[in-house]
Amino acid sequence: NEKSCLSDVWSQSVPAEIISEMLLPTIVNARNTGFEGFSTVVYDWQEHPYAKEQCREYLSGLEQYDIPADNVFDKSYPLIALIPTYNESERITDCLCSVEKDCDGIILLDDDSSDNTYELVQSDKLLLKAKKVRTEFNDKQNRNILLDLASFFKAEWFIFIDADERFDERFVDLRKVMKRDDVDTVGVWIANLWDSMETYRTDMEDRHPLSQNGLWFRWRMFRNKGWNQLQIDRRLHFSTVPYCTRGKECLSKSLLLHYGYLGGFKRRKKYDFYQVEDSDKILCYDSLLCENSKLSNICDIKLNVLGIGNDI
Prior knowledge:
Strand content: 15-25%
Number of strands: 11
Low-confidence stretches: 2-7
Order of helices and strands: HHHEEHEHEHEEHEEEEHE
Number of helices: 8
Distance between the termini: 62 Å
Radius of gyration: 26 Å
Shape: globular
Structural class: alpha/beta
Oligomer: single chain
């Protein structure tokens, strides 16, 4: 009541025309900065006028980083690959050779490898490589750092690629998909190599509803719409795209060959790793130790014949 009385006294003591001008001014003086109208763009995230300085400031919080040339921030890239690594010295060179054939730029984050993975990262397509301090395995954190770094570059599209994956050059249609205005998120297919470079496992179950005929489906590529982060509660086994707009997804006819389960020793090592790291028991990993798996030849894969790769 006291506030109401004070308000009434104030409104009665101030002329109505002054109150009207205060609440509904006839002349707007806001943003009187010398610009003509409101058409002047103060900051455009697509142009990144301060990208170089902002990126270096961000990188100063990491353990180590290398930028091959300052002009990497000035150029525009149709497709940039984002690669997380940890102790991948045996595979990182082949991975980069595969990626640079189908991507226009590479941003790599090393999770404090104890081997020489970071030193081996060399490519003409490399825009930036950085190393962070590892306190625990946190795949989500690593990929979100990569998304942070990606936000400093001019790009139309980004794609996540793991160090143990290679493009099957028979099936890469990313350039074709990128031309479509009605697509924002793109999925790829993954064949798990098993026991040899020529065979992949066909009876390894996968929870993704689109996986079929032994090929796993994963959302991996997305259009650049500014700074994004992965919003998920767990540290591993999640979709690696920051957004997926219903009706603007596309199943590509692109195939990745996964080398992570190639040999029995690697499968055992991966099994032991997941037993420790997957505290939520999201998946069962017993199939990694299976000795009698159903295998098919890589050369027999025909994505279009299998009805795979059609638009959603």
